Amino acid sequence: MNSRSVYGRVLLTAALTLVIRVIAAQQPGKPKLPHEADTNDWEAYFDYAVTLLPRLPTRADSMFAWASRLDPSRAEPLYARWVCFWLKDVGRFERYLNDDQRTLESPAVLAVDTLYLRALHRNPFVPQTLGILPYDQLPGEWRHDLYTLGWIAYARRDFAKAAQYFGEVVRSNPQKHIWSRYMRALAFVPMRAYDSASTEMTAILTMLRAREDTTISSVYHSKELIDHGIALLQLAQNRQDSARWYFQHSLDENLGFYPAHAMLGDLALARGDSAVAAREFEQAAELAPNEPWIQFRYGAALLRMGRSADAIAPLQRAIVLDPFYAAPYFDLGVAESARGNNAEAARALEQYLERAPRKDTDAAEDARRRLASLREPDTRP
């Protein structure tokens, strides 16, 4: 490596370190957790926030936001923030449910629905049991219709009973109760009844195409998202070819649907097709430049292909987008080590260990072994 490239790398590393420090300095401190909790673990923040949610939605929201910072790939904190928003103003939630146009078009509501959409991009079957809380705050009493009973059973995690109630709703009027099919699929997934969930999602897709609708609710349940959900259900049953067909079909609906590009990249990587994998991940990263979990997946994929030099840039982008996200630091350390940049590798691995949740014992032990190896004196003649 010539002196100019060494100097350029030193400048790049210094600039990246400065950006991380500036971004971190601009962020409020981590919300406090009980003293025994792991402040590097998104689940610790999520679980504690759930206990606060009915009474202190604003405080819970800050904790859900931190959970997202610690692992931006998770859908649960984003959905929970959507719930927090409505608990802060139940009157607005009532107007939202009544399709009040002024409410639906308000910037705040559009922004929070985007949070919900981003959650669905990560997991179309994100658990939505918390969604009952704002309904519970509405004036009046709970009705005793089948849909309401289904919701209550779902919130109580009685998924078999919820699926039964939602099924009765669907059978009463299949054309009208398309949304209940999605709720039924949500109930089937935690029971691992993937074929049953897939049947409901396929029926939704068939009905949408017959009606030439693009959504089934005000919260953007698009055709590509339904296709994507079916593909994930196929993947859960180890049906790669079928999953690949549905992922591709979601892109036929919307070529800019970046989660499908990332999943197609994973499938290509698994079958050893590096060219397709690189193309799909690159497309996903271009379509989602502000999503650190997508930038990380792109960099991680390049690293798995042996393209350590190319992996560095997307991994660094992931870190700049969210300096508290641990995973990219580990892969950056591996990539820098493969390039022979031991100082940068050690720095990245140290930063990973500072951010790694305690439950990631295997990765942390691997990082320590790599650090020890990097710090061994060079005894070569």
Distance between the termini: 20 Å
Detail the poorly predicted runs: 1-27
Structural class: mainly alpha
Rg computed from alpha carbons, rounded to a whole number of angstroms: 23 Å
Q: Compute the number of helices.
A: 21
Q: What is the mean pLDDT?
A: 89
Q: Tell me what portion of residues adopts beta-strand conformation.
A: under 5%
Largest sheet: none
Based on DSSP secondary structure assignment, what is the total number of beta strands? 0
SSE series: HHHHHHHHHHHHHHHHHHHHH
Keywords:
21 helices, Serine Threonine Protein Phosphatase 5, Tetratricopeptide repeat, mainly alpha, disordered N terminus, 381 residues
Structure report:
The chain has 381 residues and is an all-alpha fold. Among the domains are: 40-135; 141-221, Serine Threonine Protein Phosphatase 5, Tetratricopeptide repeat; 313-372, Tetratricopeptide repeat domain (Serine Threonine Protein Phosphatase 5, Tetratricopeptide repeat), CATH 1.25.40.10. Helix content is 71%, strand content 0%. It has helices at residues 3-26, 42-52, 57-70, 76-87, 90-97, 101-104, 107-122, 132-136, 146-155, 159-172, 178-188, 194-211, 223-236, 240-253, 258-270, 274-287, 292-304, 308-321, 327-338, 342-355, 361-375. The two termini are 20 Å apart.
